[in-house]
Design a protein that fits this description.
Structural class: alpha/beta
Number of helices: 19
CATH superfamily of the largest domain: Periplasmic binding protein-like II
Largest sheet: 5 strands, mixed
Strand content: 5-15%
Oligomer: single chain
Length: 453
């Protein structure tokens, strides 16, 4: 299941302009690559279904050609970005190395890639949504990178990202770029209600009061929050809660903090009644509705809101003039929090040339390539060392606020997230529709989830 928060991610990852180089569809993902000449005369590969190489390493004989297959989500990264790295590898290795770069829409990405991995036809490298890493690790096919962690300065990643890419003390991926969830508000509507347009509410109680002053249905609603497990993460974290206990085998959201997070949703729709009469359970139209003035405050939404604003023809200056952005409100007894998403680079141990693939991973996961990717895509970097890199942050709106968010951001659990997402989202929607009390709904979700973990 793809929750509404993930669905919005898929919309953001649509390329703004068609780029022809190296692009294929889902059928291409399933097909694998074509082969090349080889010095080997025996052996037919390593049983991975033909990953695009005409030969394998056999004794002292090595492939003369190697096509590195790279799979990415349909988005901002391009084949051209990686070609300098391929050229470096060609200079180092006695092989003709080429890059087969493939893009796939987000909606089918996980299923199609798992099908290839399960069928012994994995690509060499893939950009994987970090919440999927547990599923791919359980396949036993992910390459591990503990041996190159010093080379790429693994400790330079923010803590939340490191937690997401480590499985049983094995590093199985490297974060690429990220996003954060924060609060947006409409400055014009604040001003018309006699509120300071440059300052958003900091605590939940302030948020309820401000949203009530702005609430004017059916012309506009004071606020609106997507009811989904991914969105729930922010009030959950800010109340001091977590999704799963250490080890990921037992629900933790039934704690008092978890109940508090669910009460935030309950109050918006049922107690304070500052949102639409029908809860928002799908995120597809949410950003457009906020930008069109339907909601005065979007209390938890991704930092890609600017993408949709630019689609409406707004410049960065116009966006900042019309909208405010800050950390989401938190309970007075809690602390500010955000949830960070994003993709990680991973590789598969079924490759014919693990030496080349691991070298490729080390180069693209280093600090300088992270700088290049963030600068050229306008995405938020994942490394602490780049906080002061002005060329990276120049096109990122509200950069000072986002930098602060990265210091205390949390991530969703990568193990069993699909089950957590589906079951918990259903229970949270029961709360939003006033069919169940928060504690009751969360306990029901935990009981159902216990059989899945």
């Amino acid at each position: 299941m793809v929750d509404s928060d993930q669905h919005t991610d898929s919309l953001v990852n649509r390329r703004r302009f068609v780029k022809a180089a190296g692009v294929t569809g889902v059928a291409g993902l399933l097909a694998g690559c074509s082969g090349g000449d080889s010095t080997t005369t025996n052996g037919g590969g390593n049983g991975n279904g033909g990953n695009g190489n005409g030969g394998t390493t056999t004794g002292n004989q090595t492939s003369k050609t190697f096509t590195l297959e790279y799979i990415d989500v349909d988005g901002d990264r391009t084949k051209e970005m990686f070609m300098p790295v391929i050229e470096e590898l060609n200079s180092k290795y006695d092989a003709e190395i080429s890059l087969n770069f493939r893009e796939v829409p987000y909606g089918n990405y996980k299923k199609q890639l798992l099908t290839r991995v399960g069928g012994g036809n994995a690509p060499d490298v893939a950009a994987i949504d970090q919440i999927w890493l547990g599923s791919f690790y359980n396949s036993g096919k992910l390459m591990t990178f503990n041996d190159i962690q010093e080379q790429i300065n693994f400790d330079d990643y923010f803590a939340g990202f490191k937690e997401a890419v480590v499985q049983e003390e094995n590093i199985v991926g490297f974060p690429i770029t990220t996003d954060v969830r924060g609060m947006y508000w409409n400055k014009d509507q604040f001003e018309s209600a006699g509120l300071d347009p440059n300052t958003g509410p900091e605590t939940w109680s302030e948020f309820y009061d401000v949203a009530a002053q702005l609430h004017d249905p059916p012309n506009r609603y004071g606020t609106g929050i997507i009811v989904a497990a991914g969105i729930y993460s922010v009030p959950l974290f800010s109340a001091g809660g977590q999704f799963l206990k250490s080890g990921g085998s037992e629900p933790a959201f039934t704690s008092d903090a978890g109940v508090k997070g669910a009460e935030f949703i309950d109050k918006i729709y049922n107690e304070e009644k500052i949102g639409p009469s029908s809860p928002i359970t799908g995120g597809g139209n949410y950003p457009q509705e906020f930008l069109n003035g339907t909601y005065s405050i979007a209390p938890v939404y991704g930092s890609w809101m600017d993408f949709f604003a630019r689609q409406k023809g707004m410049s960065n200056e116009e966006i900042k003039q019309k909208y405010g952005f800050s950390i989401s409100p938190h309970p007075s007894s809690g602390s500010p929090a955000t949830m960070m998403g994003g993709f990680a680079w991973s590789a598969f141990n079924t490759t014919d040339r693990p030496d080349i693939v691991k070298d490729f991973m080390g180069r693209i996961s280093g600090q300088e390539f992270n700088r290049k990717i963030a600068r050229e895509t306008g995405r938020i970097p994942t490394r602490k060392a780049l906080l002061d890199a002005s060329e990276v942050w120049s096109n990122i709106l509200w950069s000072d606020t986002i930098k602060e968010m990265l210091e205390y951001g949390g991530t969703r659990p990568v193990n069993n997230w699909s089950a957590v997402d589906e079951i918990l989202t259903t229970s949270l929607q029961e709360v939003a529709y006033d069919r169940a009390e928060p504690r009751e709904a969360l306990q029901s979700a935990a009981d159902e989830l216990a059989g899945e973990l």
